[in-house]
């Protein structure tokens, strides 16, 4: 069996195909983690060939190379023949399994993705992308409170390692929001806008406005969005979010005025103006949106 076959076998690539059942796998994973580390050590110290991202054999060396990772095409620097090379290999396996799972929905790919990324982190816990992918996987189990708590921890660790990781911060905000931690989620949304102003879009400001409403911090939200609208006077998403907050604060006239400003303006795309017009019509009919 070649090196890749040995590592794959050690990682359980050939285990029975079944849905993810994490509680029953705890003992198995603990044992396998020790086995993985032992196998990696033996491969490194006995001159056995290692594999790159494409699976081609190469001699052990000390030079660094940049390989494309996923999700997000983030570069991963791997030291050939070192522990990091195996960590990045496991991470790439996890990313590939994750992609297969999103395309097929088969639980086996999800199980393998989580197992591989956990193994990568066990070898090297200093890569933000590893923690980010782990967070993505745990967040997918959004009906399980423990998994959502683990997703939160993984994403916080990813941001500790890379505070400028915008995708990790956005996902963390959504995970916190889904757990009902609206104040903490709002903080992450605001930090994201502060660090990356181009992210002040409907995907961020809309959920942020809802966090203010859900946490009964509507007046604080109005103050924030008024300041934000001065910075982005042409943003339909910000104007609509401000209008929702004003309406939630029983300032219906000002809310409608904000929407009418967008409709009468000529800078917003037609699709966005149509959305705002429909929202205003819904309010006029007595809707609660």
Question: Your description of this structure?
Answer:
By secondary structure, the chain is mostly helical. It has a domain at 187-289: Alpha Horseshoe (Serine Threonine Protein Phosphatase 5, Tetratricopeptide repeat). 66% of the residues lie in helices and 5% in strands. It is built from 13 helices and 4 strands. It has helices at 3-10, 26-45, 83-104, 107-123, 128-140, 145-161, 166-178, 182-195, 202-214, 218-231, 236-248, 252-264, 270-284, and strands spanning 50-51, 57-58, 64-68, 75-79. A two-stranded antiparallel ribbon has the order 1-2. It has a two-stranded antiparallel sheet with strand order 3-4. Strand 1 (50-51) and strand 2 form a beta hairpin. Helix 9 runs parallel beside helix 11 (236-248) and helix 10 packs antiparallel against helix 11 (236-248). The chain starts with a helix and ends in a 5-residue tail after the last helix.
Class from secondary-structure proportions: mainly alpha
Count of strand segments: 4
CATH topology of the domain at 187-289: Serine Threonine Protein Phosphatase 5, Tetratricopeptide repeat
Q: Percent of residues in beta strands?
A: under 5%
Low-confidence segments, ≥5 residues, pLDDT <50? 1-19, 26-79
> Under the CATH scheme, which class of the domain at 187-289?
Mainly Alpha
């Amino acid at each position: 069996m070649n090196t890749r076959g040995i590592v794959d076998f050690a990682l359980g690539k050939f285990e029975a195909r079944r849905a993810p059942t994490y509680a029953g796998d705890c003992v198995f994973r603990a044992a396998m983690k020790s086995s993985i580390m032992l196998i990696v050590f033996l491969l490194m110290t006995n001159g056995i060939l290692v594999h790159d991202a494409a699976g081609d054999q190469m001699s052990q060396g000390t030079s660094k190379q940049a390989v494309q990772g996923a999700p997000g095409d983030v570069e991963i620097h791997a030291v050939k023949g070192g522990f990091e090379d195996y960590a990045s290999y496991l991470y790439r396996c996890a990313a590939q399994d994750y992609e297969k799972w999103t395309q097929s929905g088969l639980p086996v790919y999800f199980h393998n993705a989580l197992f591989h990324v956990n193994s990568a982190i066990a070898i090297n816990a200093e890569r933000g992308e590893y923690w980010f992918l782990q967070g993505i996987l745990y967040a997918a189990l959004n009906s399980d409170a423990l998994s959502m708590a683990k997703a939160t921890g993984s994403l916080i660790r990813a941001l500790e390692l890379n505070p400028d990781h915008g995708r990790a911060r956005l996902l963390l905000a959504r995970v916190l929001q889904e757990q009902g931690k609206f104040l903490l989620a709002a903080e992450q949304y605001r930090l994201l806008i502060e660090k990356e102003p181009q992210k002040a879009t409907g995907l961020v400001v809309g959920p942020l406005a809802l966090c203010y409403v859900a946490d009964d911090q509507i007046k604080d939200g109005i103050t924030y969005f008024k300041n934000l609208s001065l910075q982005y006077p042409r943003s339909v998403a910000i104007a609509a979010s401000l209008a929702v907050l004003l309406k939630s604060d029983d300032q219906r006239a000002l809310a409608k005025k904000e929407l009418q400003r967008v409709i009468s303006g000529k800078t917003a795309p037609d699709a966005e103006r149509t959305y705002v017009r429909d929202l205003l019509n819904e309010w006029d009919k007595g809707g609660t949106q």
